[in-house]
Amino acid sequence: MRDAYIVGAGQSSYGAFPDESYRSLFATAFEEALDSAGGISSGDVDEAVIGSLGVGGRQLGLSGPAVTEHVGLHGVPSSRIENACAASGYAVRQAVQAVKSGMADVALAGGYEVMTDMSGDVAKYWLGVSGETEWERLTGTTFSGVYAQMASAYIDEYDASPDHFSKVAVKNHANGAKNPKAHLGFECSLEDAQNAPVVADPLNLYHCCPTSDGAATVIVASEDVASTCDEAVRVAGVGAASERVGLFQRDSYTSIRSSEQAASQAYEMAGLGPDDIDFAEVHDCFAIAELLAYEDLGFCERGEAPQLLDEGVTDLDGDFPVNPSGGLKSKGHPIGATGAGQVVEAFKQLTGHADDRQISDANVGLTHNVGGSGGAAVVHVLEGGVL
Amino acid sequence: MTGIAGVGAYVPRLYLPAKAYREAWGKGGAAGVEQVAVADADEDTLTMGTEAGRRALSAAGVDADTVSHLAFATTTPPADEEEAVVRLASLLGVPSNATMRQYGGGTRAGAVALAAARDAAGPTLVVVADNPAGAPESDEAAGAGAGAAAVVLTDDGPLTVDAVGEYSDPSPGTRFRRRGSTETESIGITQYERDAYTSTVGGAVDALDADVSDVDAAALTAPDGKLPYRAARALGVSTKTIAAGTAVSQTGDTGTAGPFLGLASALDDGAESVLLVGYGGGAGATALTLSASSDVPVDAVFDGDVELSYAEALRRRGTITGEEPEGGGAYVSVPTWAQTIPQRHRLVAGRCRDCGALSFPPEGACFECGSLDGYDETRLPGTGTVEAATVIGQGGAPPEFVEQQQRSGSFPVAVVALDGPDGDAGDAGNDSVSIPAQVAHTPAETPDIGDRVEAVPRRIYEQEGVVRYGFKVVPTEARR
User: Fold this and answer.
1) pTM score of the predicted model
2) ipTM of the complex model
3) Domains held by chain A: number
């Protein structure tokens, strides 16, 4: 199969925007992606894949065409992909498949979610929809509760404490403070993070990402098209895997098997290993998830994630920066937009457009997007400076 | 002749001291009641009845699946109309082809159910439970308790029902509940109500045509802690005999379950002969004399161990709390829920026909070997070990659990490795299956990984007016 390249990527700001709609947020993201692509116009898009969980209902059916027609991609085949928080990570993968297969020369992948325009009670109905419903949710377990259960098992099994979760928050907020599009773009002290109110023991408020409004889009193109564009980042590796939806159905509560499998596929396709990666955007919906990601993606051995945080290895100026964008914690988590948004950050880093948070000598980046508590995961390995 | 082979009783662990009511209202409360039992937000007459029924079966050494007649008596069923006895049977594991009868309409119902069950063929289980309520300022609310009891009758049970007597006389307004209301009330004319009670109770005992002066205990329906004693003279028994069969001072008014909790308590203390009288407002009474040819096994829990403040009691009872918020998002239909009733009521797991691994719920591909050959059903004992745990803080619950959380506050949720059919295999064994479960325990602390727990029957949530029953777990060390 032929290679696929990211030739443009853009996102709206993430946050709470009562004056925006899912369509206007998507339009903002699409416009930025087109601008960054230079040389590609709407008329070149052959295919569109849009990720959204559908929080709030709004346009559950035909939600792909609803946004692509809105931005003038008239007639372009467009479909929605739903894989909870991994929806648009999977949309990117689908667009890559379309290009690699030869069915499309230019494919648009994107995602959106609007999560802040409903009461707390209604939001709770929607936040729980990606847990295993019949047993997990109906014991009263929330989404944060499931990750808290994983955290309890992790602390029980390894040498870790809630302070390590707080360190994730401090690091990601420090990065997000440098990202003008971040939802919670402010710094927080370790003390702030340690003393936040408990959400689900051992996780506190600073160990949980916000719910956000936002959209992100990525333009994927063939080599022929990419060679005519201003920028191009090669999709070196793609991996994706599923896992049982309920935590209780799994063999391990301290690792996410779908992440491990997705990563190993992506590394194999890229012919690269964790040591070849310069930075990563990982799925830190809860702080424990970032620790699990370090281990599932092979950045360290099992049980060693706390050490990476203690030593500052994954800080923006560390040896191996993780979540330079601020991650889900600080940049925000508009569910359906998150996976594509990670690719937007990787594209900016690999093309030298990450401004204050630019990582020097960033040639290979990895994005890691997880659905629910691990029922789906998708990993991309992206390589800059190739064309 | 059939006789009672085992007795079970269950009183919730939460209680409100009478002084807390007095302090809140600046008035007396229920006469002769020291504390009232309070059902938790996820308890009702079905769950309490299940707890009592399981204890009675265990005391009698009778398997639920051999029971051929089940009677359920309550004045406070979960719904005004619906066969609650059917779900009680399911929760207990009584077969679908057993005869089932539900009794209500007045607090005499339990005694009527027992009188009728005398003639039933085969192992018979009679479950009585009540959870009355009253308007907050009323004597009925001050005295309202909660509890359940159950008796198992078999061909050779040692405690026989020797005589039955009945009496009734119209006395409207003495104890009643309006249609659609949850609050029991009375007209409030003291002497009129006392007379109705003593004359009907006395009349039923007269109708026994038996000398009851020598019984070890007299167990009477007890709306408060004084009325049974006022009937002593009419019955021809001593107040000591009444005391031996009365539990109301520690449980509060447990409605139709009252005399049965008195019976259980008396047998537990070694009584060999008991007069049991059920009284219902309106008014009617049924009296039974029971005598034991040998010890009657009793498995009972009478005492609460978690004291509530008055405000906490109002919350637990749902007096001052709201309802489930309007929603959207995830939804489990009643038919979908109903498909998992064997799992939720009786922990029916499955063994993979290919590799023998346990599965719960037993459906889909085997997690161990991937086989789709299906499962052979097997029941789990309900014990298990905590594998992962957290607490869902106040205000954080999913919408289905908002009302429960308003009433009971934070609740722990755990992933529990349920023991296989042979029980705890210890560290060496891996014949277990993991399930998520809410931890029903006060105070709500995060359980430690490795803690042992046991399943208990509870209301899980209510939606579309339909209560969904299932199991939660309690720490084994806190199991009463």
Assistant:
1) 0.93
2) 0.91
3) 1
